[in-house]
Amino acid sequence: MVAVAHAKTTGRFLVNGYLSAPIPVACGIRQGCPLAPLLFILAIKALYQRMEARSDICGFSMPTTSGEETVRIADYADDTALYLQDAHMTSAAMEELSLFGAASGLRTNVRNSVVVPLGEAARAEGRQLDAAPPLLQEGTTCRYLGIQVSDTDAEAVPWGAMMQGFRCRLRFAIAKTHTVMQRAEIARAIVVPKVL
Predict the structure, then answer these.
(1) CA neighbor of 151 nearest in space, from 87, 95, 64
(2) Where does residue 16 rank: exposed (0-12), middle (13-18), buried (19+ CB within 10 A)?
(3) 85 and 172, same domain (yes or no)
């Protein structure tokens, strides 16, 4: 059914007001296809099921209104977060991600991945591993879904980075413009989105 829906798919380019001739789409799914998110969900479900089936990959238990739920993996679009009870589970999780990538073509970019240890015991365990992805350096942050994440519970870490970016944008708005209207336009375009 998927093959039929995408048979003889073409794409065109609009450049400087000129539309190109139709070009056949040889692989993948064209951008904006309404079927793309559903196909991605079907593919990623296999990864979820394999992670849930592994007894050597344990997540965190979280209280819910109906008891407790164990969280091992969470996705938002193409960003994935793994929640592991023990740093030694990292190799099993990476093995599963590698198998899934080989089967589906959805590979994990280990260079853009990081292990965020939660607590001093987890940090000590993580230091003993030679696993990829690397351990987040103590006192530093990484970005996940646009939010600064760190291994501490200090609220100042993400807010400090956000405020630094905000001050930088304000300095730009003040230094590079002369009229009130120009400043208002810059505030609308680059300052307000940083706060929201």
Answers:
(1) 87
(2) exposed
(3) no
Q: What percent of the chain has pLDDT over 90?
A: 7
Same domain flag for 6 and 73: yes
Q: What's the length of the chain?
A: 196
31 with 15, same domain: the answer is: yes
Which pLDDT value is given to residue 126?
67
The whole-number average pLDDT for the span 70-74 is 85
- Could you tell me which residue, 97 or 80, shows the higher pLDDT? 97
Pair 78, 97 in one domain: yes
What pTM was computed for the model? 0.63
What domain range is 189 assigned to? 154-196
- How many domains, in total, are found in the chain? 2
123 and 161: one domain?
no
List Cα–Cα distances, 29 to 4, 13, 93, 162, 194, in angstroms: 13, 16, 28, 36, 32
From the number of C-beta atoms within 10 Å of its C-beta (0-12, 13-18, 19+), residue 100 rates as buried
pLDDT band at 22 (very low <50, low <70, confident <90, very high): very high
Quick check: helix, strand or coil at residue 12?
Answer: coil
Identify the pLDDT of residue 19. 93
Boundary residue ending a domain (153, 168, 188): 153
Distance CA(74)–CA(47), nearest Å, equals 11
Q: Is the pLDDT of residue 99 over 90?
A: yes
d(CA 47, CA 58): 15
Tell whether 128 and 51 lie within a shared domain.
Answer: yes
